[in-house]
Amino acid sequence: MAYFNNLTDKKQTEILTLLNSKIRQESETMYQTALPRAKTDDQTCAEYTGRWYELREQWQNGEVNNLHVYACLQMGFVP
Fold it and tell me: From what superkingdom does this record's organism come (predicted)?
């Protein structure tokens, strides 16, 4: 199995760019969903991390392989 560290810097950057885009979209959606329910400024400033963020962290830490990341990107969601 190939993992994050087995890729070239160029390929790592390419995939990280795609993942970061998914993370931004997911975080914005989570934030916009939570915003109407927030009662304090602290609640509106909270970090919103989802499955794409978790996938990126796991991938960079060698906990999931490249094929899993490719499959998630192709499907458009993290199972």
Answer: Bacteria
In one-letter notation, the amino acid at residue 68 is H
Q: DSSP state, 2?
A: -
Q: How far apart are CA 62 and CA 56, in angstroms?
A: 10
pTM for the complete prediction?
A: 0.85
Q: Tokens 């970061």 correspond to what residue?
A: 20
State residue 34's pLDDT score: 80
Residue 5 to residue 61: CA distance in whole angstroms:
9
d(CA 56, CA 60): 6
